Protein backbone atom coordinates (compact mmCIF):
# COMPACT_ATOMS: atom_id res chain seq x y z
CA UNK A 1 0.00 0.00 0.00
CA UNK A 2 1.34 3.43 -0.91
CA UNK A 3 1.58 6.21 1.69
CA UNK A 4 -0.34 8.47 -0.66
CA UNK A 5 -3.25 6.04 -0.80
CA UNK A 6 -3.30 5.55 2.99
CA UNK A 7 -3.09 9.29 3.69
CA UNK A 8 -5.87 10.18 1.27
CA UNK A 9 -8.14 7.36 2.44
CA UNK A 10 -7.63 8.25 6.13
CA UNK A 11 -8.16 11.96 5.50
CA UNK A 12 -11.33 11.63 3.43
CA UNK A 13 -12.86 8.97 5.70
CA UNK A 14 -11.91 11.14 8.69
CA UNK A 15 -13.85 14.06 7.21
CA UNK A 16 -16.91 11.78 7.38
CA UNK A 17 -16.14 10.92 11.01
CA UNK A 18 -14.90 7.41 10.10
CA UNK A 19 -11.62 6.20 11.68
CA UNK A 20 -10.06 3.42 9.59
CA UNK A 21 -7.48 1.09 11.13
CA UNK A 22 -4.47 -0.38 9.33
CA UNK A 23 -6.30 -3.57 8.39
CA UNK A 24 -9.17 -1.64 6.83
CA UNK A 25 -6.77 0.55 4.85
CA UNK A 26 -5.09 -2.60 3.53
CA UNK A 27 -8.50 -3.97 2.50
CA UNK A 28 -9.35 -0.78 0.63
CA UNK A 29 -5.99 -0.83 -1.17
CA UNK A 30 -6.36 -4.49 -2.17
CA UNK A 31 -9.87 -3.74 -3.41
CA UNK A 32 -8.44 -0.93 -5.53
CA UNK A 33 -5.78 -3.29 -6.95
CA UNK A 34 -8.34 -5.98 -7.79
CA UNK A 35 -10.65 -3.41 -9.40
CA UNK A 36 -7.94 -2.06 -11.71
CA UNK A 37 -6.53 -5.51 -12.47
CA UNK A 38 -9.90 -7.05 -13.40
CA UNK A 39 -11.03 -3.90 -15.22
CA UNK A 40 -8.47 -4.73 -17.95
CA UNK A 41 -10.50 -7.77 -19.00
CA UNK A 42 -14.06 -6.67 -18.12
CA UNK A 43 -15.90 -3.38 -17.94
CA UNK A 44 -16.17 -2.52 -14.24
CA UNK A 45 -15.43 1.20 -14.09
CA UNK A 46 -14.26 4.15 -16.19
CA UNK A 47 -12.51 5.51 -13.08
CA UNK A 48 -9.12 3.84 -12.51
CA UNK A 49 -6.67 6.52 -11.26
CA UNK A 50 -5.82 5.84 -7.63
CA UNK A 51 -6.85 9.26 -6.29
CA UNK A 52 -10.09 9.21 -8.28
CA UNK A 53 -11.03 5.71 -7.11
CA UNK A 54 -10.55 6.79 -3.48
CA UNK A 55 -12.71 9.91 -3.82
CA UNK A 56 -15.29 8.98 -6.44
CA UNK A 57 -15.86 5.36 -5.44
CA UNK A 58 -14.70 4.76 -1.87
CA UNK A 59 -15.40 8.11 -0.18
CA UNK A 60 -18.58 8.58 -2.20
CA UNK A 61 -19.80 5.14 -1.04
CA UNK A 62 -19.00 5.94 2.60
CA UNK A 63 -20.84 9.28 2.44
CA UNK A 64 -24.01 7.45 3.49
CA UNK A 65 -22.78 8.07 7.03
CA UNK A 66 -23.50 11.81 6.52
CA UNK A 67 -27.19 11.05 6.20
CA UNK A 68 -27.66 8.08 8.53
CA UNK A 69 -24.95 8.43 11.21
CA UNK A 70 -22.45 5.64 12.01
CA UNK A 71 -24.74 4.14 14.67
CA UNK A 72 -27.25 3.27 11.92
CA UNK A 73 -25.05 0.38 10.73
CA UNK A 74 -24.42 -1.68 13.87
CA UNK A 75 -25.91 -5.15 13.43
CA UNK A 76 -28.05 -4.01 10.50
CA UNK A 77 -28.81 -5.64 7.13
CA UNK A 78 -28.12 -3.79 3.88
CA UNK A 79 -29.10 -4.59 0.28
CA UNK A 80 -27.13 -2.92 -2.54
CA UNK A 81 -29.17 -3.02 -5.76
CA UNK A 82 -27.31 -2.86 -9.09
CA UNK A 83 -24.03 -2.86 -7.20
CA UNK A 84 -21.83 -3.16 -10.32
CA UNK A 85 -18.21 -3.27 -9.11
CA UNK A 86 -19.41 -3.31 -5.48
CA UNK A 87 -20.32 0.31 -4.78
CA UNK A 88 -21.46 1.37 -2.25
CA UNK A 89 -21.84 -2.03 -0.54
CA UNK A 90 -18.23 -3.23 -0.24
CA UNK A 91 -16.73 0.08 1.04
CA UNK A 92 -19.54 0.27 3.63
CA UNK A 93 -18.81 -3.33 4.70
CA UNK A 94 -15.07 -2.61 5.06
CA UNK A 95 -15.71 0.52 7.15
CA UNK A 96 -18.52 -1.05 9.21
CA UNK A 97 -17.63 -4.76 9.58
CA UNK A 98 -20.72 -5.42 11.74
CA UNK A 99 -22.99 -4.62 8.78
CA UNK A 100 -24.56 -7.65 7.04
CA UNK A 101 -24.47 -6.93 3.28
CA UNK A 102 -26.15 -8.43 0.21
CA UNK A 103 -24.90 -7.28 -3.22
CA UNK A 104 -27.31 -7.74 -6.13
CA UNK A 105 -26.29 -7.45 -9.78
CA UNK A 106 -27.81 -8.67 -13.04
CA UNK A 107 -24.46 -9.58 -14.66
CA UNK A 108 -22.99 -12.90 -13.60
CA UNK A 109 -19.35 -12.06 -14.34
CA UNK A 110 -19.61 -8.99 -12.10
CA UNK A 111 -21.06 -11.17 -9.33
CA UNK A 112 -18.10 -13.54 -9.69
CA UNK A 113 -15.74 -10.56 -9.38
CA UNK A 114 -17.55 -9.42 -6.22
CA UNK A 115 -17.27 -12.89 -4.69
CA UNK A 116 -13.54 -12.94 -5.46
CA UNK A 117 -13.11 -9.52 -3.80
CA UNK A 118 -14.99 -10.59 -0.66
CA UNK A 119 -12.90 -13.75 -0.40
CA UNK A 120 -9.61 -11.96 -1.04
CA UNK A 121 -10.39 -9.29 1.57
CA UNK A 122 -11.59 -11.85 4.12
CA UNK A 123 -15.01 -10.23 4.46
CA UNK A 124 -17.67 -12.15 6.40
CA UNK A 125 -21.45 -11.69 6.43
CA UNK A 126 -21.50 -10.40 2.87
CA UNK A 127 -22.92 -12.19 -0.14
CA UNK A 128 -23.20 -11.41 -3.87
CA UNK A 129 -26.23 -12.66 -5.78
CA UNK A 130 -26.97 -12.74 -9.48
CA UNK A 131 -30.38 -11.63 -10.72
CA UNK A 132 -32.81 -8.83 -11.45
CA UNK A 133 -34.26 -6.62 -8.74
CA UNK A 134 -37.80 -7.26 -10.06
CA UNK A 135 -37.42 -11.00 -9.43
CA UNK A 136 -35.59 -10.80 -6.11
CA UNK A 137 -38.06 -8.18 -4.85
CA UNK A 138 -40.82 -10.82 -5.08
CA UNK A 139 -38.74 -13.54 -3.42
CA UNK A 140 -39.85 -13.90 0.21
CA UNK A 141 -36.27 -14.58 1.28
CA UNK A 142 -35.44 -10.98 0.29
CA UNK A 143 -38.76 -9.09 0.23
CA UNK A 144 -39.04 -6.57 3.09
CA UNK A 145 -36.08 -8.20 4.87
CA UNK A 146 -33.55 -5.32 4.98
CA UNK A 147 -33.00 -2.39 7.34
CA UNK A 148 -31.33 -0.43 4.54
CA UNK A 149 -31.41 -0.57 0.75
CA UNK A 150 -28.95 1.54 -1.23
CA UNK A 151 -28.24 2.04 -4.91
CA UNK A 152 -25.82 4.05 -7.03
CA UNK A 153 -27.45 2.65 -10.18
CA UNK A 154 -28.36 5.11 -12.93
CA UNK A 155 -32.15 5.27 -13.07
CA UNK A 156 -34.76 7.91 -12.28
CA UNK A 157 -36.08 7.98 -8.72
CA UNK A 158 -39.52 6.58 -9.64
CA UNK A 159 -38.03 3.51 -11.38
CA UNK A 160 -35.30 3.03 -8.78
CA UNK A 161 -37.86 3.16 -5.97
CA UNK A 162 -39.81 0.32 -7.54
CA UNK A 163 -36.62 -1.74 -7.80
CA UNK A 164 -35.51 -1.02 -4.24
CA UNK A 165 -38.46 -0.35 -1.92
CA UNK A 166 -39.67 -3.99 -2.01
CA UNK A 167 -36.48 -5.01 -0.15
CA UNK A 168 -36.97 -2.58 2.76
CA UNK A 169 -38.57 -3.56 6.07
CA UNK A 170 -41.30 -1.29 7.41
CA UNK A 171 -39.40 1.29 9.46
CA UNK A 172 -36.26 0.82 7.33
CA UNK A 173 -34.73 3.12 4.74
CA UNK A 174 -34.03 3.29 1.02
CA UNK A 175 -31.21 5.70 0.11
CA UNK A 176 -30.45 6.35 -3.57
CA UNK A 177 -27.13 8.05 -4.41
CA UNK A 178 -27.68 10.83 -6.94
CA UNK A 179 -25.50 13.34 -8.78
CA UNK A 180 -26.26 16.78 -10.18
CA UNK A 181 -29.49 18.68 -9.68
CA UNK A 182 -32.26 16.43 -8.36
CA UNK A 183 -35.18 18.76 -7.47
CA UNK A 184 -37.21 17.97 -10.59
CA UNK A 185 -36.52 14.22 -10.36
CA UNK A 186 -37.36 14.21 -6.65
CA UNK A 187 -40.67 15.98 -7.25
CA UNK A 188 -41.54 13.61 -10.12
CA UNK A 189 -40.65 10.55 -8.03
CA UNK A 190 -42.66 11.40 -4.90
CA UNK A 191 -45.84 9.75 -6.14
CA UNK A 192 -43.98 6.48 -6.82
CA UNK A 193 -42.35 6.62 -3.37
CA UNK A 194 -45.78 7.01 -1.75
CA UNK A 195 -47.39 4.21 -3.79
CA UNK A 196 -44.51 1.93 -2.71
CA UNK A 197 -45.07 2.63 1.00
CA UNK A 198 -42.37 5.26 1.43
CA UNK A 199 -41.95 8.84 2.53
CA UNK A 200 -39.09 11.21 1.67
CA UNK A 201 -37.58 12.31 4.99
CA UNK A 202 -34.68 14.39 3.79
CA UNK A 203 -31.89 15.07 1.31
CA UNK A 204 -28.19 15.47 2.08
CA UNK A 205 -26.32 17.50 -0.55
CA UNK A 206 -22.54 17.66 -0.62
CA UNK A 207 -19.47 17.95 -2.84
CA UNK A 208 -16.86 15.21 -2.92
CA UNK A 209 -13.43 16.25 -1.52
CA UNK A 210 -11.23 17.81 -4.17
CA UNK A 211 -13.82 17.15 -6.88
CA UNK A 212 -16.40 19.44 -8.40
CA UNK A 213 -19.00 16.66 -8.38
CA UNK A 214 -22.21 17.59 -6.57
CA UNK A 215 -23.88 14.63 -4.88
CA UNK A 216 -27.19 14.03 -3.13
CA UNK A 217 -28.41 11.28 -0.86
CA UNK A 218 -32.18 10.94 -0.51
CA UNK A 219 -33.48 9.38 2.71
CA UNK A 220 -36.74 7.53 2.10
CA UNK A 221 -38.43 5.81 5.06
CA UNK A 222 -40.66 2.76 4.55
CA UNK A 223 -43.79 3.60 6.53
CA UNK A 224 -46.09 0.78 5.40
CA UNK A 225 -45.94 -2.62 3.69
CA UNK A 226 -45.79 -2.71 -0.09
CA UNK A 227 -48.66 -3.89 -2.29
CA UNK A 228 -48.29 -7.35 -3.84
CA UNK A 229 -48.54 -5.64 -7.26
CA UNK A 230 -44.96 -4.37 -6.93
CA UNK A 231 -42.40 -4.71 -8.28
CA UNK A 232 -43.99 -5.19 -11.68
CA UNK A 233 -42.48 -7.60 -14.19
CA UNK A 234 -38.99 -7.11 -15.61
CA UNK A 235 -38.49 -3.92 -17.60
CA UNK A 236 -41.75 -2.18 -16.67
CA UNK A 237 -40.39 0.02 -13.83
CA UNK A 238 -38.02 1.61 -16.37
CA UNK A 239 -40.40 1.71 -19.35
CA UNK A 240 -43.43 2.91 -17.39
CA UNK A 241 -42.34 4.66 -14.16
CA UNK A 242 -45.03 5.28 -11.53
CA UNK A 243 -45.39 9.03 -12.18
Automatic annotation (TrEMBL):
Its EC number is 2.1.1.-. It comes from [Clostridium] asparagiforme DSM 15981. This is Ribosomal RNA small subunit methyltransferase G. S-adenosyl-L-methionine binds at residues 82, 87, 133-134, 152. It is an enzyme of class 2 (transferase). Belongs to the methyltransferase superfamily. RNA methyltransferase RsmG family. Keywords: Cytoplasm, Methyltransferase, rRNA processing, S-adenosyl-L-methionine, Transferase. Coiled coil: none annotated. Gene3D superfamilies: Vaccinia Virus protein VP39. One of its GO terms (molecular function) is rRNA (guanine-N7-)-methyltransferase activity. The keyword Kinase does not apply. SUPFAM superfamilies: S-adenosyl-L-methionine-dependent methyltransferases (SSF53335). Specifically methylates the N7 position of a guanine in 16S rRNA. One of its GO terms (cellular component) is cytosol. It is found in: Cytoplasm. Pfam families: GidB.
Amino acid sequence: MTDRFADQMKREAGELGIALNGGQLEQFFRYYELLVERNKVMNLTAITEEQDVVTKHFTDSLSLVKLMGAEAFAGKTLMDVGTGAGFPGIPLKIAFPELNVTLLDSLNKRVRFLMDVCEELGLKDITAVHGRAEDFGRNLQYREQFDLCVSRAVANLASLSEYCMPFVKVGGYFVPYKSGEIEEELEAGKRAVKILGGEVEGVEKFTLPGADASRSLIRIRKIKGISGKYPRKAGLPTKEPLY
